[in-house]
Design a protein that fits this description.
The protein is of the alpha/beta class. It has a single domain, classed as Alpha-Beta Complex (Spore Coat Polysaccharide Biosynthesis Protein SpsA, Chain A). 35% of the residues lie in helices and 25% in strands. The strands form three sheets. It has a nine-stranded mixed beta sheet. A hairpin with a 2-residue loop joins strand 9 and strand 10. It is globular and about 60 Å long. Bound molecules: 1-O-phosphono-alpha-D-glucopyranose.
Length: 292
């Protein structure tokens, strides 16, 4: 019997090395996309996909993540008194409707090492995994995590979000060796973590969202250190493939990775341009910059 997917894990423990020195004191998951931290978009995607319980994996020094999702009575009172209703509702919206719990990753030993810590939280149920530094802006009505849940409900197997990338980018991602089944659904044969373009089995990259059956935790227990001496989630998925089917879903949604300076700036420009008020303020300034 397939279980309803109501749980999600959001790993948010990493150092954010590509955004140093900004991330020395501020968690990269709190990088703003216009006026909201990237992690709030990720939590909102989970909630609008039907997720009710979230476990966020953090590390020491990233307590600001916890504070962001807590209520802030004094601040709210001040905003209420000064009639700043619009800002007040934006602040209240960050008190997530999902239950959020936190766990510390004591040793930063990779994405697989982080997910492994959530085994008790998953408690034998299927779980979604959403990387906390990446927004997947769905062009379809259904958010990307919801798209994965739909595939899980159809096939009863783990599903990984896939996106086509240019050949020179394959070395930044987990790359799938997959066979097209129908529409946007693939059967996964193998995965390679960050291959060179010559070794890559294709151009379909793992795109920051996963849906796992409980089998992923037994696979993670058996996964030893891989690339960069870290426990790679990709290696655990390869082990899972030995005992279960794993599907790929080429998702409809645009990915914004805010973990790099260019990704952060491009995402902010694009989201700002979608907001009429900001667009009209920014366009003259951008034209001016480009003309000089
Ligand atoms: C991780 C995964 C990789 C995946 C990528 C984007 O890499 O290990 O397989 O393609 O996220 O989802 P990272 O970007 O953390 O180095």
């Amino acid at each position: 019997m397939k279980k309803k997917v109501t749980k999600a894990i959001i790993p948010a423990a990493g150092f954010g090395t590509r955004m140093l020195p900004f991330t020395k004191a501020v968690p990269k998951e709190l990088t703003p996309l216009v006026d909201k931290p990237v992690l709030q978009y990720v939590v909102e995607e989970a909630v609008s996909s039907g997720i009710e319980d979230i476990m966020i994996i953090i590390s020491s020094g990233k307590e600001a993540v916890i504070r962001h999702f807590e209520s802030a009575p004094e601040l709210e009172m001040r905003l209420l008194e000064s009639g700043k209703d619009k800002i007040l509702s934006a602040v209240r919206a960050s008190n997530s409707p999902a239950r959020i719990e936190y766990i510390y990753q004591p040793q930063l030993n990779g994405l697989g090492g982080a997910i492994r810590l959530a085994e008790n939280f998953a408690a034998g149920e299927p779980v979604a995994v959403l990387l906390g530094d990446t927004v997947l802006d769905s062009s379809a009505a259904r958010p990307v995590t919801g798209q994965l849940i739909d595939v899980y409900e159809k096939y009863g197997s783990s599903v990984i979000a896939l996106e086509q990338v240019d050949a020179e980018k394959v070395s930044s991602y987990g790359i799938a060796d997959a066979e097209l089944l129908a529409g946007n659904i693939f059967k996964l044969h193998d995965l390679m973590e960050k291959p060179s373009p010559e070794d890559a089995p294709g151009d379909l990259a793992v795109a920051s969202r996963y849906l796992f059956t409980p089998g992923i935790f037994s696979a993670l227990q058996k996964t030893t250190c891989g690339l960069h001496n870290e426990i790679q989630l990709t290696d655990a998925i390869r082990l899972l493939l030995k005992t279960e089917n794993v599907f790929g879903c080429q998702v409809s949604g645009k990915r914004f990775d805010l973990g790099t300076p260019d990704g952060f700036i491009a995402a902010n420009v694009e989201f700002a341009m979608r907001c009429p008020e900001l667009r009209s303020k920014l366009m003259p300034r951008l034209r001016n910059i480009l003309n000089h």
